[in-house]
Amino acid sequence: MKKLSWFFKKLFGKKYFIKYTDKLKNDEILVIGHKIYISKRGEKMKENNIIYFKFPWDRVAITQYYSSKHQAIDNSSKGNTYAYLPCDAKIVKNQWYDDYGYMVEYEANDSRGTFVMADGHFKKKSSLKVGQIYKMGTKIGEIGTTGNSTGPHDHFRIALNGKRVNPLDYLYVYDGQEVHEEDVPKVKYFNDVVKKYEVIVDEIPVYTNANNAKNHKKSTGTWGKGTYYVFNEAYGMINITTKVGQAGAWINPSDNVIKEEPVEPPKEEVEEKPIETPTEEVKPPIIGETPKDDEDNTEKEPVTEDKPDETINNTPNEETNEIGQDNEEIEQELEETAKENIFVKIMKIIFDFIIGIFKR
Which residue intervals of the chain bear CATH 2.70.70.10? Predict the structure, then answer.
């Protein structure tokens, strides 16, 4: 935990606060103003000078796994033509073996000890020279079926400090390598143990060295939004690249911070009330009175009183007479209807009585 904390302080300096935890997962995002992917396992390997061994083929398609009786892995030649060095290594042997045919043995060292690796069943003897040191990815030879073999494949083994170990515990799949679907959950991936830096702004200035990046001088352009590998760090600056193990361009992490502009508090909206103008009450003119108009000097028409019409005064009396006649007629009709109803009831009783006699 202390080493991880020291790494963050060295990488970002005092300007950046990073929230970290012991329960980090591979590729977990730690947010501070910019984002960085980091694996605790990967940092530990880097600090202890650990070699990332690359699978020595373009396509991982394992046909036989490591066991106590078969202390190696066999990889199919399907999709593979050559085998390559999984790391920077020194060639130890390059010769014929009865069981493995043409075989090449090489070694490398890191903080864990000495690794001796070997590839067998090459089609012909490799051109690599014993005692020479070659870079990772150097072509060893063409895959064949020499020696005790039932078909073209590469027999690959690893010994750590003289003891055979399972190669799958030390090999990693790099970008650009294919993996057979059955082997996907069984192998490890280099991306899980290397740091990634995600540019979250649309564009970020890049520089040729860390000093220029720190002082924001002589930018060579900008790189767009995306995820990049971290190649190196210096003075709190970061060298990011699109290819693992290859130098890229220097950036200043402060350029990758999304700055939030201060938001002004919303102003309270004051409702503007309309100004009420006083209005004079206008009184209706009195009949028989001429309205006064001080400003207008035009002649006013005389107001005359309307005389009541005799026909209008007589109309209510006639209507009341007609209503009285209608009420008398309605009362007569109701009396006649009541008499008819009584007669109908009597007839029904008589009818029911007669039917009752016949039923007996």
Answer: 53-187
